[in-house]
Amino acid sequence: MSTWLRNVRLEIGETTHEDGSILTKSDLFHIHVAKEGVIQTIIPASENVPDTDAIDMEGKLALPAFKEMHNHLDKTYLSLGWKACRPVKSLSERLAIEAAELDELSETVTQRASAMIELHLKNGVNHIRTHVNIDPFIKLKNLEGVKKALEAYKQYLTYEIVAFPQHGLLAHEEMPDLLRQALESGATILGGLDPAGIDKDIEKSLQVTMDIAKEYDVDVDMHLHDRGQVGFYTMDKWLDMAKEQNYKRHTAFSHAFGLSNLSPHMQKLFAKKLSEHNAEIMSTIPISINHQLIPIDILKTEGVKVALGCDGFYDSWSPYFSGDIMEKVHNFCDYTGKSDERSLRQSLSLITQEVTPLDFEGKQKWPMIGDEASFVFVDASCSAEAVARLPKNRQLMHKGKFYKSKH
Ligand SMILES: [Zn+2]
Fold first, then answer.
1. pLDDT one-digit tens code per residue, 237-249
2. Ligand 1: centre distance to CA 164 (Å)
């Protein structure tokens, strides 16, 4: 069914005041969404449109729908009762605790994943990249459950599933074949995890990953928590191997903590290398008094694509986080001292696959006729205000279809 969205607020430009401050300009429009879910017409709200099949958006601001690019739908405790985390002394202890409860949790994976999907939809997300454990304990059980949950919401979102060797790739000899099975059973991206810290053999771990990725012709998205020189070396080595072995697909490094302690000069040089390889960085904006955030601004300046994710939340790893991807942008801006109109509004690109209503200079570039009709409608005057104030009561439209919560 085609629909008119009446009185939608769109950003159209900016005004610079005498004191140098910048204010985003917006106006109201009627948007006609064709039944195929694309934008067919945009006209000023002063013009008349037929009342039938029209929905009054009452001046709400339209933003591009959000993308959640690092998540673990299979791990959450959401929909179960409250449970705090058990304290551990090391990552291997944390993994042992997770392994002990995997079997029991796998029974409710579809229910738990659905609760997390609904939270994302409510917050304006219409694309989820989720990692799913593929491990020797429950094998492909979580993959099946997560796929089922995502399929049930496919009218509201698109998704990608990463086959994730959370308990190591080399420590269990059946892992390479389990990952192959996952890639034959609905996972579309190959994951990885700390070739140094977990697998204890960087070259071998990367080579096995490369071999499987080439065999199945899939992208790779690797968790790299290894810090310092080891983490940096792992990324550098992978990019060299990708070139030498003619790996044509796309690489993403999640977390990429090895970038944070390099000198700014080295960060810039390596950002150039990442950009040449078209490699993407996924961050969850971890804010810690012990560690520096990775240099997202330097990466972006050098043309590296950076995307954000909420990671797992409320699970055996962490009891925290609201599950709002927009809060990640807000935290990033707060932490890096961004408070002016332009930098606040441009930061939205971190959760929209680079799409922003205005470009940096304030020229309108979204939405255009022919674009997918995927929006988040919010109570705000402009993107900058939305990032700073995190409006509640968001309404998601995915390809012309409004998300309506079942609850
Ligand atoms: Zn993760």
1. 999 999 999 999 9
2. 9
Q: 26 C-alpha vs ligand 1 centroid, how far in Å?
A: 37
Cα 249 from Cα 236, distance rounded (Å): 16
Q: How far is the CA of 351 from the centre of ligand 1 (A)?
A: 17
Strands 66-71 and 61-64: unpaired
This prediction's pTM: 0.96
- Any idea what DSSP says for residue 24? E
Mean pLDDT of the chain: 95
| Over residues 145-169, mean pLDDT | 97
Query: Distance from the CA of 314 to the center of ligand 1, in angstroms?
Result: 13
Sheet holding 251-254, edge to edge: 66-71, 125-133, 158-164, 189-193, 219-223, 251-254, 280-283, 305-308
Is the model's pLDDT at 313 over the cut of 90? no
For residues 247-261, give the mean pLDDT.
97
Neighbours of 369 (CB within 10 A): 11
Task: Check: CB of residue 387 under 8 Å from CB of residue 348.
Answer: yes
| H or E element in which residue 366 lies | none
Q: Helices (H) and strands (E) in the chain — how many of each?
A: 11, 16
The pLDDT of residue 355 = 97
195 CA to middle of ligand 1, Å? Answer: 15
CA of 194 to the centre of ligand 1 (A): 11
The token pair at 284 is: 């969850």
CA distance from start to end of the chain? 25
Structure tokens at 88: 């551990």
Ligand 1 centroid to Cα of residue 30, in Å, is: 40
User: Rounded to the nearest whole angstrom, what is the distance from the C-alpha of residue 362 to the centroid of ligand 1?
Assistant: 35
pLDDT at position 317 is 83
Cα of 190 from ligand 1 centre, angstroms: 13
Neighbours of ion ligand 1 (CB under 5 A): 311
Residue 131 CA to ligand 1 center (angstroms) comes to: 7
